[in-house]
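Support request, please re-run this one:
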Amino acid sequence: MTDTEQIREDIAYVRAAAERSDAGHDPAYYLLWAAIVLGGFPLSDFESTRPWIGTYWLVAGTTGFGVSAWLGIRAAWRTGQADRRKGVRTLWHWLSFMTAGWLGGMLVARGQLTPDGYGAFWVLLMALTYCQAAVHLDRRLAPIGGLLAVAYVMTFFVPGYRWTVTGAIVAAGLVTQAFLGAPTRDRTS
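Re-run finished. Output below.
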């Protein structure tokens, strides 16, 4: 075997191994957001908590975003897959989601959308964002996107405590994804 053939085989082996590898699965993302959702969604069902909803989501959402970014950086370094371009692309994806959601608040401020409608808007925006993340970032996010789409529809039809029920379903999906969404490893190589 010539040196050129050996180099080609080595490169093919490394490329195949890299293609089979998958980004690290960190359940902490899902558990963090499940806790945030469980704390925030029920606030909309109780009149006495209404003044605190915006404050809760501003603080919890912004903090959750920062912690998620830190978890992503940590997971990339831990798995040896620190790809700056992918990290920046992922950051912009989720930052765009948050920005669109906060800009949607202008619809409420101008009276074009009710506060309750704004909550449904966020759920729809989350469904779209998770589905797009499944297409462009990590296909394992597709079940959460589908579940969020169902949750969006539920906000119209569940009588009484609809936000608590919707939040519990979304949180259950996130917790399930935390433990069942880990990538399967190819044991043949």
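Residues 53-79 form the longest helix (27 residues). The CA atoms of residues 32 and 64 lie 7 Å apart.
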